[in-house]
Amino acid sequence: MIRQVTVYLDDNELETMDGAFRCGPVVCENLGGGEEVHNDLLDNRGYWNLGELRAEVAALFRVPAEMVLLSA
């Protein structure tokens, strides 16, 4: 079972000139403390809103959006 999902924003393009945010690696942590890294989970098209990014990741893992953390 997933305890937490951390989305790392792409630090090369944290906030691009067009205002879109890009997704980097996504790390899922399970209840036992194990981690699974997903490097190419999203298509990296860019997100205008961080809530939109959080909601899409939450839907992929079928967890509440509150379990998805964003990290720069």
Widest sheet: strand order?
3-2-1-4
Mean pLDDT: 86
Largest sheet: 4 strands, mixed
Q: What ranges have pLDDT less than 50 throughout 5 or more consecutive residues?
A: none
First-last Cα distance: 25 Å
What letter string, H or E per element, gives the SSE order?
EEEHE
Structural class: alpha+beta
Q: Which descriptor suits the 3D outline?
A: globular
Percent helix, as a range, is 10-25%
Note the beta-strand portion: 25-35%
| Radius of gyration of CA atoms, rounded to a whole number | 12 Å
Overall number of strands: 4
- Count of DSSP H/I helices: 1
What would you say this structure looks like, in words?
By secondary structure, the chain is α+β, with helices and mostly antiparallel strands. It is 17% helix and 33% strand. The chain contains one helix and four strands, in the order βββαβ. The protein has one helix at residues 50-61; strands at 2-9, 23-30, 35-38, 68-71. Strands 3-2-1-4 form a four-stranded mixed beta sheet, covered by helices on one side. Strand 2 (23-30) and strand 3 form a beta hairpin. The radius of gyration is 12 Å and the shape is globular. The relative contact order is 0.30. The mean pLDDT is 86.
Task: Please summarize what this structure is.
This protein has one helix at 50-61; strands spanning 2-9, 23-30, 35-38, 68-71. It is α+β, with helices and mostly antiparallel strands and 72 residues long. Strands 3-2-1-4 form a four-stranded mixed β-sheet, covered by helices on one side.
Helix and strand arrangement:
Elements: E1 2-9, E2 23-30, E3 35-38, H1 50-61, E4 68-71
Parallel strand pairs: 1-4
Antiparallel strand pairs: 1-2, 2-3
